[in-house]
Amino acid sequence: MWEFWRQFCRDRRGNYALMTVLAMLPLAGGLALAVDFTEMNRQKQMVLNALDAANVATARRLVEGATDDQLKAYALDFFNANLNKVNPANTTLNVVLPSNSTGGGLMQMSARLDYQPYFYPVLAQLVGQSEADGNKKISFDVASEIRLKNTLEVALALDNSGSMITPGTGSGQKRIDLLKTAAKQLVDTLALQSALIKQIDKPVQFSLVPFAASVNVGTGNDNAAWIDTYGLSPVHHENFDWSTINAADRYAEKANGIWYKRGTGWGAGEGQILTRFSLYRDMKVVTSHERIAGSKRVVCDEYRSNHTCTRSHDEFDYIDTYGPFASWQGCVEVRPYPHNVSDTPASGGPNNTGTGFGDPATMFVPMFAPDEPGNHWRVTQDPDEDRPRTYSAANSWWNDDPSSTTGKTQQRNMAKYFMPRPIDAPVLGKGAGPNYSCTTTPITPLTDVSKPEGLTAIKAAIDLMAPNGNTNVPEGMAWGWRTVSSGEPFTEGRSETEKGNDKVVIVLTDGENTYSVPVSDPAGNKSTYAAYGYTGLGYNSTSVTRLFGGTSSAIGQFNYSNSNYTAALNEQMTTLCNNAKAANIMVMTVALDLSLTNAGDKKAIEALKACSSESRFRKDPADPTKPAKLFWNATGASLSNDFKEIGNELSNLRVVG
Predict the structure, then answer these.
(1) I need a labelling partner for 320 at 20 to 30 A (CA). Which of 107, 134, 141, 264 fits?
(2) How far apart are CA 636 and CA 176, in angstroms?
(3) What's the mean pLDDT in 193-213?
């Protein structure tokens, strides 16, 4: 045997074949491992591709408002559908949704691939491993992370009251000009960032709400479904007594809550509704006054005892043409409580839910400042007619009907509005007329500033702001909220359920809330006319004015003083702020040139600070355990830098990359 073995070893025949066989073993093993490795990497890449695709798709569903359970089920289905030839049974998926319910944050997904090699088990056994060890799957973990990009909707509710013409502290410029510059810089900053985001529609939008004693919603909304065009709101007729139009052939009649023109004396207007809008249309002014040739006649003014004339004057007949006196300029009154401090949708009226449905008190009523007692022009051609008496009322702009004898009835008598204003009537004082206290430019709805045309539009609207009038901060803020809301009156805002979107209202004012007591008050109005109407009128047949609705016992219900009006507006503002923040509106407030040493200013500062939301990013310098308040006590000199801080805060709400 031993000899046979020695001969076999010395034999060189067939060595090549033998060495080839021996060499093929590692070559075949390497090839098998290469196949397994290539397939393993292919499957790993397929899993990663499927994971990335599922993450992007699920992120889109997230911002659409899907629930957590829906998102996880959607992610798994999308992941499995995109695995191609990878067996879903060999994978597991884990989804971590953003914890921030207000949007932004990270969408995180991870997946495990349990790969079963084709050839490795055989090779493992050849090198001495057990069958169990050789058949173990090889596991790989892959991850995908998407940083969600917040969208922003920002309302600029900016004080345009008369005091904004005052030079800003520490600056030679007027407050309104400083505000315009700072506001445009803020818009430019966010617009520059938004331009970097190409895959999101309308990443940053701004609206503008200039406010003073009232807010202007724009004349183009005169027939909007949320405007009270039929006079159904309890607010609509509170200053008017339509029953004073009572001629036999020309009178007013109420049917189903709506006033109508009745009688043939109305001519083509018979059957039309009587509202504030109809008053604007029906008031006429003489635009041409042509004397008829040969129409001269002598009119005796005083007779002697023998019936001959001792004093006379000449009169003539004229051909008159008429034109409109005024039109609605876009301002609306404040809704009654609680709708004044909420985003309650308007309901009721033929343009909306139908007559007899909904709540007409939720409708927005166009402002129409009544003509207060006093006369302005002579009504005869008698040169000896007494001079018109004006009574020094704050807003007397038409002649009273002679049948009225008291200040209150003179103001509420409606027949006077259907007498034309003469061509030679005195020029009205600045701001006088039915649009009294409507002093601001219209609201600019949410506008996409990532587009050049949108950026230009919002900055142009800022430039048009002009200071005039009193200060009603809660009304400005309320309309700021309504512009970022998804529902009417303005519908440009994203849905409140859409994640990844922040709704922000920035409120700036340079003074405390004001509602004025008139110097002369012949009609007993107790206030000048503004967005809450007259405070001397109780709301809806009650004895309490709308301004005091929903206020605490600290507000005197029959205290008609400037200080009580301010206190009532402050309480309305507190309630509004709480409601807005509860609806996930982020509120930022700015006090401009208010002093802590002035009692009124100090109250305004405290109210604005309490109204503001808390920062998500900054800590209170005085107490680092608490978040900073989104409130800035600015001066004219610091306003620009303060608005830069606001810009930084808004930038942190978004993710640019």
Answers:
(1) 264
(2) 10
(3) 86
